[in-house]
Amino acid sequence: MAITRRQLLGTCPLLLLRASSAPALSLEKAQWAEAFVESIGVCTHWTYNDTPYGYAYERVKQLLIDSGIRHTRDGFSERIAELGRLGIKTCVAVGPEASSKPDAQKVADIVERIKTLNAIHPCIDAIEGPNEPDLFWPKFHITYKGEGGDRGIESIVKGVTAFMADLYPAVKSNPATSKLTVIGPSLGVTYDPGAGHPNPFPKGSLTNYVDWGNFHPYCGGNPFSFPFPYDTLEKYYWQGDFPSSKLDEFPYAFLTYAPPFAPKPMAATETGYSTNRAGPSEAMHAKYMPRLFCENFRLGIRRSYSYEFVDEFNDPDGTSREAHFGLVRRELTPKPAYYAVKNLITLLRDKRPRAGFKPSALPLAIRVLPVKDYREPISGQVVTYDRTQYVHHLLLQKSDGQFWLLLWHEIADEDTSVVPPRLIQPPAMPTEVFLPSSVHKAVVYRPNNGIYGVESDIIKGRLSLEVPDELLVVQLFQR
Q1: Which residues are bridge partners to 266 per DSSP?
Q2: Residue 249 shares a structural domain with residue 209
Q3: Nearest residue to 261 via CA among 196, 338, 208
Q4: Where are the alpha helices (H) located in 173-250, listed in sequence order?
Q5: I need a labelling partner for 418 at 20 to 30 A (CA). Which of 9, 93, 175, 271 fits?
Q6: 265, 405: one domain
Q7: Is residue 353 part of a domain?
């Protein structure tokens, strides 16, 4: 729904830039908006009866439905069949411990359980291999075919590889499960190839046993990067907590965890932020989470499951990291990030998706101008923001043919070198979007503020904006 610029003056800042020659437009292929919405998931724990997932299931279920999120990641549970009936599909994480049968029968038993649940109502759309076996197999003495447990990392690698080598063909050869996506195992330890501590799974060792690879790129600083001062931070990538810190300019997570699955695409079955005392504030969390899903999708990650949907534990002083990962607080009041993600999905979902739709391309050019001698309001530091490449974008298209352009300033909003983190208020970046003459109108939305948009002028094929540190969604209207 669009309202006039006058009605929302100041809510969605628009800036007319100084006149400059327009760059040549180049065709940019859009991605389907539905594919983006389908990439958004959350982790749940329906069997944790001492948490809201258990004792307040009905309320949690309704919050999940209302969010518009269509994908969860969990273990086996009868509740996922009900969620499937409501249009919410589950990625089931399995390992040898998911079946009490002998090793020779475990995989067949797991496949049969999936068939049984999907027969009630299609509810499982993905199967994930062992979760962080480098952490949990030694702790819980999990083995497969005599490998794993506390026998060391080489034995764990052999056991996990053998399990995936059995699981993948069993899933794909069964007509009832053959179309399900098989996601690889994740790792829980921080590996550092440059320091002689590489990923224990060899390159390509799991390629033939997965549809998507897997990693858990939790957001936060990236010490595996070149340190440089920026954004009031002495070591920008080390101290910044922005969503793409391990994935884009210094892609440590891809370089370390993707090779065993190459060239298969990646999924992130756990990612996100804890809003405990040492993590981002809830206000910053709300800015980061829509950006996280956009960044991951932009970088080719097929699905990202935010860990997690609801805060599990009571922790009033905020010292427990594990207690505050949810989009919803433990008392079942949504955090601001819940509404930001919900609004984003509301804007971008394809209400009448057309089977077989293939997005087209749009002639487009984007120019970002630096902000010089900016006085950061909180610290008072005078900083120049000249890394204009940090304005990122996604071009999406719905099956009605309408294009949607997403833009955001991918910048750190906090200094994590202190606890609680020091807040930063970076500037919005002056940005020009150059468009063909067929695009005659734009409506700009800020999901963090709601689902109401501001009509914006396109003057001689130029749309002028200030791109902030939160997501802008621009609806483009063509003649």
Answers
A1: 213
A2: yes
A3: 208
A4: 236-239
A5: 271
A6: no
A7: no
